[in-house]
Amino acid sequence: MVLDCYSTCFLWIGLRACDSEKKNSYKKVEEYIKDKKDGRDVNHVQIVQVDPVSEPINFRTHFPEWEEEYSQKWLDLDPYEAELARIAKEKHDAADAKWGNHEEKVYEAAETGNFFDLKVLQTSIPEGCNPAAKENYLSDAQFEEVFKMNK
Fold first, then answer.
1. Dihedral angle, C-alpha 130, 133, 134, 137, nearest 10 °
2. Distance CA 121, CA 118 (A)
3. Do residues 37 and 71 share a domain?
4. Which of 16, 98, 101, 116 suits a disulfide with 120, CB 3.0-4.6 Å?
5. What confidence score (pLDDT) does residue 107 get?
6. Do 64 and 100 sit in the same domain of this protein?
7. Containing structural domain, residue 114
8. DSSP state, 10?
9. Is the Cα dihedral 79, 85, 91, 97 positive or negative?
10. Domains of the chain: total
């Protein structure tokens, strides 16, 4: 959103703005100012970027009905995103219940010597292997060869 106050243009970018909006917004405001034919000196117009929920008083005064408590809601997670986060947590918890904690599996594979060849792990799911953590079932040497780091 752009609030044009003649000598100052406020650029407010919401939390849910996509990357392209964030990236191109400043340039678009500059173009907007250059296109105005209202007698102002474009070299003396200040562009002020305003972050959500930390709007300065000189921005808020242009909105007589401004309510600080309401603006705080901009920080709340979008209901759709909140539901996606809840579903992701449920999936993670279900995987933990089925396969156990990820860190425990690393130690379990190392303790039992339950390692598999890279080709086997790439083409199948060996019995007792967590498909979401196949890297834990590589030997130390193969792990380092594939990932260029140690476990």
1. -90
2. 5
3. yes
4. 116
5. 45
6. no
7. 79-147
8. E
9. negative
10. 2
pTM over cut 0.85: no
Do 101 and 52 share a domain, yes or no?
no
Q: What is the pLDDT of residues 67-102, one digit of tens each?
A: 777 666 665 667 887 888 889 889 888 877 776 654
Q: Is 15 within 8 Å of 52 (Cβ atoms)?
A: yes
Compute mean pLDDT per 10 residues along the chain, 151 residues long, and list them: 90 84 89 89 89 83 78 68 86 76 49 76 80 82 88 78
Mark out the alpha helices in 9-139 (DSSP H runs).
19-35, 57-60, 68-72, 79-99, 102-112, 118-123
**Pair of tokens at residue 83:** 């539901």
Regarding whether 65 and 92 lie in a shared domain, the answer is no
Tell me the CA distances in angstroms from 61 to 55, 66, 133, one per residue in order. 10, 8, 54
